[in-house]
């Protein structure tokens, strides 16, 4: 097992940095601060990230996914929306009922560009959070309805295996997946993380899963067989998500959070909430973008 060390690279200390996505067409990184209701876009240059665009909204933003014509598909608190390059917002479908005490959390597009997104309970621990897929016609299909906290989503290089995180159960699931037909197989535990809390995930070009571990200050690389291979240490207790970025997709990007840290911990970890970068000797996959089919 190899241990790598990540270094801080962004200027802003986020409350809850999350959802990094590399936009290969624009050669930019997109990410959010969920609690601040902010979406950021930036460029990588010599180990640092320069912010080139910043958007603010009056509610949480779980994730922002690049779409056609420089649009972004947003998971707002309970609904989806599309923002264009001028910052104009077009409302999308409602995913969570108004009365339900949950918000949208992490999401991702499958190889066909259909958007999947899950929910997080805002109150006491829940066991009925869910994961949905939004089809080309705007129809919302329920995939899971028994989760504790739906989190990171990713696909194998060939798109035939779908990984999904249930954070409070401390597991990542795997199942067969076919984006063209919509088929999804039986959900099985791919890996359990003991006392550690898996959060955002991504897959590299060799099919290894990279998992941000909330509260543990590390990212783990897991082989397609479910074995621990590498560890990336992060000088921030709450790594929240990961992606590969850069022109060669060879830089591991790790978002972190400063939320839930005491004042003492914030002084101990002054870079908590920043984005970290690591060279792990692996290349990533091009992140599927939103198809643009759902706007109402």
CATH architecture name = 6 Propeller
Q: How many domains in all?
A: 1
Strand content: over 45%
Class per helix and strand makeup: mainly beta
Describe the oligomeric state of these chains in a short phrase.
single chain
CATH class, anyone? Answer: Mainly Beta
- What is the average of the pLDDT values? 96
Identify the strand order in the major beta sheet.
Answer: 1-22-21-20-19
Q: Which stretches are poorly predicted, pLDDT < 50 over at least 5 residues?
A: none
CATH topology: Neuraminidase
Large-scale geometry: globular
The number of distinct β-strands equals 25
Under CATH, the homologous superfamily reads TolB, C-terminal domain
End-to-end CA span: 48 Å
Radius of gyration: 17 Å
Order of helices and strands: EEEEEEEEEEEEEEEEEEEEEEEEHE
Could you explain the architecture of this structure?
By secondary structure, the chain is mainly beta. It has one domain (2-278): Neuraminidase (6 Propeller), CATH 2.120.10. 2% of the residues lie in helices and 50% in strands. The chain contains one helix and 25 strands. Strands 1-22-21-20-19 form a five-stranded mixed β-sheet, with no helix packed on it. The chain is globular and about 45 Å long. The N and C termini lie far apart (48 Å).
